Amino acid sequence: MTTTEALRELLPEGRVFDDPDVLAAHSRDRATFCPAGTPAALVRARSTEDVSAVLRWANEHGVAVVPQGARSGLSGAGNALDGCVLLSLEKMDAIIGIDPEEQVAVVQPGVINGALAAAVAERGLFYPPDPGSRSISTIGGNVSTNAGGMCCVKYGVTGDFVRGLEVVLADGRVMRTGRRTAKGVAGYDLTRLMVGAEGTLGVVTEVTLSLRPASAQPLTAVAFFPELADSARTVSGFLAEGHRPSVLEFMDASSVKAVQQIADLGFPEGMAAMLLVQSDLGDAAPAELAAFEKVATAMGAAEVVVSDSVAEGEMLMQARRLVGDAHEKLGKALLIDDVCVPRRRLEEMVTGLKRVEAEHRVQVLCAGHAGDGNMHPVVAFDESDADETARAHQAFDAIMALGLELGGTITGEHGVGQLKRDWLGRELDEAGLSTSHAIKRALDPNDILNPGRVLPEAS
Amino acid sequence: MTTTEALRELLPEGRVFDDPDVLAAHSRDRATFCPAGTPAALVRARSTEDVSAVLRWANEHGVAVVPQGARSGLSGAGNALDGCVLLSLEKMDAIIGIDPEEQVAVVQPGVINGALAAAVAERGLFYPPDPGSRSISTIGGNVSTNAGGMCCVKYGVTGDFVRGLEVVLADGRVMRTGRRTAKGVAGYDLTRLMVGAEGTLGVVTEVTLSLRPASAQPLTAVAFFPELADSARTVSGFLAEGHRPSVLEFMDASSVKAVQQIADLGFPEGMAAMLLVQSDLGDAAPAELAAFEKVATAMGAAEVVVSDSVAEGEMLMQARRLVGDAHEKLGKALLIDDVCVPRRRLEEMVTGLKRVEAEHRVQVLCAGHAGDGNMHPVVAFDESDADETARAHQAFDAIMALGLELGGTITGEHGVGQLKRDWLGRELDEAGLSTSHAIKRALDPNDILNPGRVLPEAS
């Protein structure tokens, strides 16, 4: 019996797909240059019972299962493996409940981040985690990568908002973790163990999220710097004064230029970097932005624009949000990195990228969540040129090496997946790696849950 | 060779103690009615190497190790086991560094919470977690229980501030978890797995903590309610309006009365409950307290006092902080509970306590972190009366059952330890329990790390 036949016996009608075109369309997330195999079947789960049935069967038969949300991930954790079952959670997309009094939402994993944010906003609430993919990515995917975004500098990452989960374990059993209450310390933190595990320890089928009261509409300022290092020093200098902006983003000259080509925002010419800051402090927002202006000017900004209009601020934010599209429009192949460094090392990070660019003779663009020290350097290269492609991969690696050297991490929010699993072996120490492997073996002894992702080969 | 002799061979001089009086003095934390065994030795570790040597030896010889901080815990996780090594981290009490620019502190586990809070305040920073024990409890203990406190309603619990750890594993290997950066998702969240594990998965030897900029000095209000239920409804009603007070505490009539007996604060007579709220919003604090006054009055408060003086506010906070001492001064034995419920169920919680009191004919006092739904009901009873003692234990159990029934947890911040391990089996489902046991076996296969704590017997 084939995998498809076996799954069709187990599951209600309309769940199992094996049309080659459908499978091919579901075989990759958005990571570039990550190998993808040929899946045996795609299951579109519609209930926890569906997920449970698939895992129980896969565990008994030693078949790999790759959980998928919107396949918007950037690390290859959603890519197919040869002969695997692709387990899509996209159709489990119900917002089960929003509780304004308790400030909690309960959702299925396939809910789109932006849809949830909009639904809670209608109730006067705020779900802060806002990955760049928010209009397409799912909460389940956000949980599985512990996704970040622009609001994290003030409000924290996805994991900070996850109170509890329903998770299907490798053998198909259903586990509830965490709590519905504001606090709780009953037993090991299985919730946080699942957050960011990229589907290698269990499949998330329900998420209980903390919400916040709505914040005030933010005001926005942008600063332009002739010198790259000055922009980095402004970030650490401003935050060290004790300010907590709701957004603090960085764009280098190449990124600003790329954005200007798809939306002319009239930004000044000849600048090396731009910072974008928002304050959602309401009446106190102008003072926070004035403090930013003061620091930026002292550090060497050539121009600082403080907007007193929410609409104009939204337009400036749009410039930042367009960076991904703008990079893609360059018509080159892209390798997107995700290093995060201590803020005071940002200066060395951004200037170091220039060295990487020169040394490996490939273009390196950079934008990122400067307030968190989380940068997304992008190596752009001509894929038809084998030598340039090789140099691009070297540059990509050099960026991670630089991040580690500066006391940082290889991934601030995109996850390890397949793309960086060997690099995880360089970031963790031997005890951390072997503990991680021990946990994986304990929870998934037959190694069916997204095998080969996150953890490097055991030594 | 005895345990003491073996350890003295392994460790530098002045580390190993076996004087029976010293051992007896270190055999218990502050949990009442938790059995404690007779330890073989006490080790006062002074370095990670000391901890590593003890665990390596204990793991080889199958000797139980009970890690201890200040022994201020309330769940018996620090109590001696027969023949165990008590491993005290109290002498590892260095603040290794405070980095104002990066807003990070690195500390050894024996640092007292209040000492750290004071040290970072001197640098213009804020370490929010403030358990009631803060003047005596250690950061290592706070991490191991994921301790809370009064500031948590706005700022979160200990775990929310832990970026990374150095942990000695059961076999003596040293592991670094987490990151120094604001964000990071490289691999499984081993940091959070250790937080709240009460020394059953590893021994924490260094902690990297996030700090915040200092907040404004808070202003304070108190409200007095003739009806218990009205105080609970005020809590959920006020928070549902979107306010984020920095403190929102509850005291019942018996607790207020007990406090008045050690410090007469001139509180009105005949009230059923008191709420205490603080706002640290600076210029916006008076408006937040006015909103509280409005809700409290609408809900039936007989008197609301809004203080415009920081000093007077500190005096009112003192009343709340004295509750523990005041309860002890009643001259009765106390069983301290720690249930946490969804905020809208607080009304049922506090009125339910009155039923428990009547049904089991023991006094039940209550104070707690109302804004988090985290209540500390205290059963006070005459220990010389066997029948009353039995009823007190029944009441203690009835309170946890009530918490679970209301959708809550058996422990909001004190931990499971020995006191509530059987109850953990009622809170977690079968899959959660077996997953927790699998993790414990994977990380501590010889079961030497605080064995028998947290997890109930495997079924």
From TrEMBL, chains A, B:
Q: Indicate yes or no for the key word Repeat.
A: no
Q: Which UniProt keywords apply?
A: FAD, Flavoprotein, Oxidoreductase
Q: What is this protein called?
A: FAD-linked oxidase C-terminal domain-containing protein
In its UniProt entry, the species of origin is given as Saccharopolyspora halophila
Pinpoint the FAD-binding PCMH-type domain residues: 35-214
Q: Which cofactor does it need?
A: FAD
A Pfam family annotated for this chain is: FAD-oxidase_C
